[in-house]
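Before the break, one more example. Copy the sequence into your notebook; we will annotate it together after we see the structure.
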Amino acid sequence: MRNVYLASMAVIAAVGLVGSPLLISGAPLEAQMGFIQKIFYFHVPSAWVMFLGAFLCAGGSIAYLFRGSERGDRLAVASAELTVLFGVCVLITGPIWARKAWGAWWQWDVRLTTSLLLWLVFVAYLFARRYGGPGARKLAAGLALFGAADVPLIYISVSIWRTIHPKTTVVKTLGAGMRAPFWASMLTITALFLLLLELRLALERARARLDEAHLAVEDHLE
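Here is what the structure looks like once it is written out:
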């Protein structure tokens, strides 16, 4: 079953990575920003999976903190790495778009600042796991919960504060020619995220089996 799921995500991602750029290139140009607006089709899906990764990491961390679930911990670390990865995509594509739209690479806008904070929290999560000592995993799990709490703030920030960032309603206002490329990109990036997540989890499971084998050998030698 897992192999079927993995193959399905791989096929969707592969087809999407070929087909989505073709749809995006054929999408109509936005009246004010022109060609640079096409970054939207990559920027928004990357932000979506960054949020998804943050929530999955928090869910796995809760399972580890309250039930001692090793499976939850494996999900947490795999999701954290992908949150950082796709967060880099968000933080690179955003300023490129901003340079054309606002005339500056970066503004300390509420949404931009909270998005940067989210990325930094999950970078800190990975450092905490690696260098945090005996309680590293619990420390990292606490950071994951803090990071996940930032996601709703990022989403609603444009509705609460005055901001230069586009509103969350922009997707609903897309023209007919822009909808297919956008949703194709969303499906592609989501499938790519799920594919990478499953591969990363497979690596964590293999590491766990290797650790168990080492312990078994040590017990036998004793």
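The mean pLDDT is 88. Residues 132 and 211 are 20 Å apart (CA to CA). Try to locate both features in your own notes.
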